[in-house]
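[User]
If only I could read backbone structure tokens as easily as an amino acid sequence. I have put the entry right below:
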Amino acid sequence: QVHLVESGGGLVQPGGSLRLSCAASGFTFSSSYFVWIRQPPGQGPEWVSTISTDNFAWYADSVQGRFVVSRDNAVSTVYLQMNGLHFADTALYFCARADGGLYFQLPRRDFWGQGTQVTVSS
């Protein structure tokens, strides 16, 4: 059973940074791709980033150059370092185990965690 728990969200000023963590259990972490997804208030979920088993990463244009995804197989955790945060980055952020789709496709909903809220406000 896929079990993912996100943490690290919070309130941050524009231009600030946050690091999100996603602790995984219930499956073989090292052989899985992971996807970060966000859902802004009143909008649908959108793809943010994907990391492969060998640490190759893809990013949405909106976060390219500001966000960095990484993974630590030793502790079964995926990270999302977010720098230069904008008001538009305000969203509920989810991590998910990829389910074999294209790198920018959102995995099936039962492969997602519960999310962590990121609010960018002055």
